[in-house]
Design goal:
Low-confidence stretches: none
Bound molecules: glutathione
Helix content: 55-70%
Distance between the termini: 38 Å
Structural class: mainly alpha
Largest sheet: 4 strands, mixed
Radius of gyration: 17 Å
Order of helices and strands: EHEEEHHHHHHH
CATH topology of the largest domain: Glutathione S-transferase Yfyf (Class Pi), Chain A, domain 2
CATH architecture of the largest domain: Up-down Bundle
CATH class of the largest domain: Mainly Alpha
Number of helices: 8
Strand order of the largest sheet: 2-1-3-4
Strand content: under 5%
Shape: globular
């Protein structure tokens, strides 16, 4: 199978991590990104987003698109370790937190903080830290505070194992840290500790190492703003 999409995308990261956790091997075409998308990519993904997964690389028109669909496919392909809890309430809550991460959190992290820094620099413009600071403040007072409460003393967001909820949330929060905004441990001790736990997993550590190698290669180094 072949995964299409640039590694700094939180949605591509989500898929790379679950595949690594499940020991699934795949080819990875990292050239497709929001800034570099060939016209004929529409034939693979009509919404022109990354990631896309080609179960059969010789048949690109029959792709599995969207990180949630891909993660669901990989769970069926290799059920263990399970990323979707069995208990109905836990299952529903895991899907809700995944949805929250992929939509509201993704939008506020991506558009509000990550892109004003990273996309500006990639386009040869100065990073817009005024916009990013405002974006982070909005997150801190809203969705991050909500997530802090959702942990409620637990090790992971739902049930007692690292699930699709943890995976989707961590994939987004990593992009905050990449541009210098980490979870403030004084204001959000549970979320900060959870993030450390999540990032210590071999699967996440591997993707972080890859991202950091990329930043080092292109000479990017963002000062820490919080945390
Ligand atoms: N719900 C989609 C979201 C994918 C998404 O929005 N990907 C971004 C990159 S992080 C993208 O492809 N954006 C295209 C663009 O901005 O033109 C998923 O989970 O796969």
């Amino acid at each position: 199978m072949k995964l299409l999409g640039a590694p700094l995308s939180p949605f591509v990261r989500k898929v790379a991590i679950i595949a690594q956790e499940k020991g699934i091997e795949y080819d990875h075409d990292k050239r497709i990104s929001p800034m570099s998308m060939p016209d004929d990519y529409t034939e693979i993904h009509p919404l022109r987003r990354i990631p896309a997964l080609l179960p059969d690389p010789d048949n690109p028109a029959f792709a599995i698109n969207d990180s949630s669909a891909i993660c669901g496919y990989l769970e069926k392909l290799v059920p263990s370790p399970a990323f979707y809890p069995d208990d109905p309430v836990s299952y529903g809550r895991a899907l809700w937190l995944e949805e929250l991460a992929d939509t509201g959190l993704g939008e506020q992290v991506g558009m509000g903080v990550f892109r004003p820094v990273m996309f500006n620099i990639s386009a040869g413009k100065p990073a817009d830290y005024e916009k990013a600071d405002a974006g982070f403040e909005r997150l801190a007072g809203g969705l991050l505070a909500y997530l802090e409460k959702q942990l409620d003393g637990q090790e992971w967001f739902v049930g007692d194992a690292f699930s699709i909820a943890d995976l989707a949330i961590a994939s987004q929060l990593i992009n905050l840290a990449h541009v210098g905004y980490d979870i403030p441990a004084d204001a959000m001790p549970q979320l900060a500790a959870w993030k450390k736990r999540a990032c210590a997993r071999a699967s996440l550590a591997a993707t972080l190492e890859e991202d950091n190698a990329f930043f080092a290669k292109v000479g990017l180094n963002f000062p820490a703003k919080t945390g």
